Amino acid sequence: MTVRQRNRSLLLAGGLLVGAGIFDLLAGIGDVDSGDVYASLHAEGLVFYDLTSWAWLHVASGVLLVVTGLAVASGRRRWVTAALVVGALVVVVHLMFAPYHPIEALIVVGLILAAARLVVRHRRRERRDPPVRTAGRPSR
To answer: The whole model's pTM is what?
Structure first.
């Protein structure tokens, strides 16, 4: 397997992360701008929830996903590890926010998990097949 084919999985993972980040960023900006208040009925009465701070968290996680997605395509080990860490954090945020926006959480978590699978498979393949050293000679 050539180096070019190895990096295709990282390019796809980066694209998935950028797509999830843009979706998360736009949804977060929409939630910040809308000013919607959620209400629930309890025994004590009606309780109102303002989710503006969660929306700002989605904006920040969207920016993190876009930056990480663009950087993971470089193939450096630290960015590949950063993609897994940022992906895990964003998945936790979306699972806590899922009762309010279940479709958004499902889309973003699905994209992140697909990207994480590609990154993990790339890391396993990289450990199993170390690069061939050519001692300064051009390869064929």
So the answer is: 0.79
